[in-house]
């Protein structure tokens, strides 16, 4: 099962995996229909502290991930990483499968702690998190979920490892929909870019300038900007600003958190400066953005 733990600073609900038994509290896999029946507040924006994967076999509606809206349809799979804000709006009955697992679930099984980041759908980009499963793969994907549900019904050491193998098999199959079967090793610049993005995700509230990140990467600001321009088509400063804006939107989800409190959380010197910054890059004020959100799911 899941439990909710309100976060004092963030305000909106954060779901954690818990109550799965004393032996293995790091994974949950089950059909989606009973999962929905058990958790009635999926329409309210929330975060997870775990990886969250949903495969639909029936139903419709919409799903919003980090403020990107997607139409739900059968044979569609959603993959989310810890920290992303999302909510569902279903129409009629939906079914499929859900797989939740913590970051530690594979740590003792894999030598590479960053292995999951190799999969594009687990990189925290909403546009890459939605996969349409082709007809040729549907039977196999469904079979893997059925096997995982069966294994999860009674977990011991052997069955847990079998469950991990099935999950990794699923991820590898899904990866063929987004990347070449044998992707080329990351270039030096691509590795630097990924490390830059990880640093931004960790320090965006305190480090705002490209030169700060260039220093952490032991390269020049010009080199960092050139990498971002070549591989992303945007400057390093834009990468940092987009991450700040994303977190601002995530915090504004909570109506009990004042705009001034959001500004303070993001280390803006005052509310006025934060409002100007937000409006410059979103073309709307924090208050107007929040009001639009309330209209969407209120």
TrEMBL record:
PROSITE patterns listed in its UniProt record: HTH_ARAC_FAMILY_2 (PS01124)
Protein name per UniProt: AraC-type DNA-binding protein
Record keywords: DNA-binding, Transcription, Transcription regulation
Lineage top rank: taxon: Bacteria
SUPFAM superfamilies in the record: Homeodomain-like, Regulatory protein AraC
InterPro entries registered for this protein in UniProt: AraC-bd, Homeodomain-like_sf, HTH-like, HTH_AraC
Short name of one Pfam family: AraC_binding
Limits of the HTH araC/xylS-type domain: 194-292
One MF annotation (Gene Ontology) recorded for this entry: DNA-binding transcription factor activity
């Amino acid at each position: 099962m899941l439990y909710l733990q309100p976060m004092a600073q963030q305000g909106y609900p954060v779901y954690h995996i818990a109550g799965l038994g004393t032996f293995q509290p790091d994974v949950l896999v089950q059909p989606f229909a009973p999962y929905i029946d058990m958790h009635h507040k999926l329409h309210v924006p929330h975060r997870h502290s775990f990886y969250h994967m949903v495969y639909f076999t029936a139903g419709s509606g919409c799903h919003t991930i980090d403020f990107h809206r997607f139409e739900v349809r059968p044979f569609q799979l959603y993959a989310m990483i810890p920290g992303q804000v999302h909510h569902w709006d279903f129409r009629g009955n939906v079914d499929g499968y859900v797989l939740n697992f913590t970051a530690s679930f594979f740590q003792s099984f894999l030598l590479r702690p960053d292995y999951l980041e190799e999969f594009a759908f687990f990189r925290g980009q909403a546009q890459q998190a939605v996969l349409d499963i082709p007809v040729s793969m549907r039977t196999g994907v469904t079979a893997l979920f059925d096997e995982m549900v069966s294994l999860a019904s009674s977990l011991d050491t052997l069955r847990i490892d079998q469950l991990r193998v099935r999950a990794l098999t699923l991820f590898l199959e899904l990866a063929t929909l987004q990347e070449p079967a044998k992707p080329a090793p990351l270039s030096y610049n691509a590795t630097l870019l990924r490390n830059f993005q990880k640093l931004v995700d960790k320090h965006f509230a305190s480090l705002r300038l490209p030169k700060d990140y260039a220093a952490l990467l032991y390269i020049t600001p010009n080199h960092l900007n050139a990498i971002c321009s070549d591989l992303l088509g945007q400057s390093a400063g834009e990468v940092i600003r987009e991450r700040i804006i994303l977190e601002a939107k995530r915090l504004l989800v909570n109506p009990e958190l004042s705009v001034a409190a959001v500004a303070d959380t993001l280390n803006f010197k005052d509310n006025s400066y934060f409002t100007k910054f937000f409006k410059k890059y979103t073309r709307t004020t924090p208050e107007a953005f929040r009001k639009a959100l309330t209209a969407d799911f209120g």
